[in-house]
Automatic annotation (TrEMBL):
PANTHER family (UniProt xref): GENERAL SECRETION PATHWAY PROTEIN G, TYPE II SECRETION SYSTEM PROTEIN H
DUF1559 domain: residues covered: 38-282
Gene3D superfamilies xrefs: Glycoprotein, Type 4 Pilin
Organism listed in the record: Roseimaritima multifibrata
Protein name per Swiss-Prot or TrEMBL: Type II secretion system protein G
Length: 299
């Protein structure tokens, strides 16, 4: 008669030490992976922002082809609409453009800004809405792209101060540059950009959290004992300077910058788009904002 022996199978699980080691390894791998994922996402957002700027540049060229001039930054009367409103027909927004009113004041055109235009917003921008406390501007979409009104400072080529319109300035709004591409009631053409379209900034990016003057994308200016520029900005401070709290911010000198690491997007008047580093020499930066002051430096 055969005897049966019961065999025991021993099963061994993870020890606590082994489990902690595995968790630590997984944590390291996740820590290595997350920055790569975030970098890839930012690269995609930056590419989309560049495409937005490219489309705005093409719209400016098409506007010039039709009207034989570039759009004014606004008109100090009527609806006070900004640059972006005038570009709507050239960005497949003709139906929205037909809603524009030129009588009365800017309030009549504010309802248009209930429409979100993806091409007016940087995907990395933290704020998509007007930050105005006025009841009639609450929850309206803003823009992250602004026209170049010109440089503020000294022309290193001539050692002369860049031209300004001091009659339209007050301390609260800041200076009013006039050597850029977009002015009140202007009729500037390609021929007026004597520094060359390749060397002259058309539009730049303002899309960082510290900027406190976002307004509805329909608006071009605000007038009260001087002009507050709402669709253009001066080039006075270094790129991204406001993110470090380095100066007192005003409407006109809000400072270009972005949430993209180390710089911001700029569209040149030849239609090209450039990512400009925040460390760019200020002489070259202001020279690129001037349309006809004869500087030799460029971006």
């Amino acid at each position: 008669m055969c005897s049966k022996q019961t065999s025991r199978i021993s099963r061994r699980g993870f020890t606590l030490v082994e489990l902690l080691v595995v968790i630590a390894i997984i944590g390291v791998l996740v820590g290595l992976l997350l920055p790569a994922v975030q970098a890839a996402r930012e690269a995609a957002r930056r590419m989309q922002c560049s495409n937005n700027m490219k489309q705005l540049g093409l719209a400016l060229h098409n506007y010039h082809d039709v009207n034989k001039r570039f759009p004014p930054c606004s008109i100090d009367g009527g609806g006070k609409i900004g640059i972006l409103v005038r570009l709507l027909p050239f960005m497949e927004q003709q139906n929205l453009f037909e809603q524009v009113r030129y009588d009365g004041n800017y309030v009549q055109n504010l309802p248009m800004a209930q429409n979100r235009i993806d091409g007016f917003l940087c995907p990395s921008g933290p704020e998509q809405f007007s930050v105005s406390t006025a009841a009639n501007e609450a929850d309206l979409y803003t823009t992250h792209y602004y026209g170049n009104s010109g440089p503020i400072g000294t022309n290193a080529q001539t050692n002369q101060t860049y031209v300004r319109d001091t009659t339209r300035e007050n301390a609260s709004f800041g200076e009013y540059a006039t050597d850029g591409v977009f002015q009140l009631r202007s009729n500037l053409r390609f021929a007026d950009i004597t520094d060359g379209t390749t060397n002259t900034i058309g539009m730049g990016e303002v899309s960082y959290e510290q900027y406190k003057f976002y307004r509805a994308w329909t608006r071009g200016l605000y007038w009260y004992n001087g002009v507050a520029l709402l669709s253009t900005k001066n080039h006075k401070w270094p790129i991204n300077a406001a993110k470090n709290g380095g100066f007192t911010m005003t409407f006109n000198n809000g400072g270009y910058g972005s949430q993209h690491p180390s710089g911001a997007m700029f569209g040149m008047m030849d239609g090209s788009v450039r990512f400009v580093s925040e460390t760019i020499d200020m002489t070259a930066y202001r020279a690129a904002a001037s349309r006809g002051s004869g500087e030799v430096k460029g971006l």
